[in-house]
Amino acid sequence: MSLQCQGWQLDTYPQGLPTPQDVSLVSHSLPEPQPGQLVIRNHWLSVDPYMRGRMIPVKSYVPHFELGQLMEGGAVGEVIASQHPDFAVGDKVLHMLGWRDLALSDGTGVTKLPEGMAPLQSYLGVLGLTGLTAWVGLNRIGELKAGQTLFVSGAAGAVGTMVCQLGKLKGATVIGSVGSEAKGRYLTEQLGVDGVIHYKQEASLTKALSRVAPQGVDLYFDNVGGEHLEAAISNMNDFGQLVICGMIDLYNSDGNRPGPGNLTEIIRRRLKVQGFIATDHLADFNAFAQEVGAALAQGQIKAEETVYQGLESTFDAFLGLFSGANTGKMLVKL
Fold first, then answer.
1. pTM higher than 0.90, yes or no?
2. Is Oxidoreductase among this UniProt entry's keywords (predicted)?
């Protein structure tokens, strides 16, 4: 007996910001699982900025989405049928067959989740790839130390809020850039961030950062790129580090936007610039989970979430990432 599945497929490769005309919500029949297969009913879906890069048909660190095929992304769900020896009906699992309500899997990339330790959606955020990204960027790439000044762009986003909190736990002075007064208050009042830049209100981000962090910046965690990267370079202390995690400011660009005009400062200030991909550091997952899991259990880390309701809202949630609609992790609850 087949099941009816709904999911989002990519119909055209977007130019600039994706539009509803680039995607469609489609239905199809899901066959019964064969030996070695299982069916998962998704409860939570993750939408993330990196997915915009998968909508471009070029070679990258993750394959691009194929036209006419369901898109993929992080999801947490429950096994509802199984002929797989490692998974039983009722198991809660983490996997990458998101953007849909039901998924047929051969078990590849499916991880069984412990129950009762944390809300299931946490494994898409603070205890998942989002949290690992922040942890790796600060610990393995940036090697943040107590007493240093950390500047975070996109500081109220999923990765940004984690970077801010981990930075404070390490004893750093943390400066965050945000797009609204409400997000700024959240960072200072709830997360203990030391200083905030409301970038939409500033004529010069370089001057704004100099004002908020006159001592200079030792480590810049970049989620935005563009003017934020240029401002950071101009305010870095000698031998500072720039950890390049994302550049959401450029993801919907036509490719003609100029880069920072002050790159020679990298030489003069002897700066270290390194990009990274969290999935290159999966060997660190246990160390990350132990540290962050304990901090979460002790209330030292907050798991802020912005939740859209229903599969039909998934594309709207995705677009919201580019307009600043989220504080913390953007999720879709099915």
1. yes
2. yes
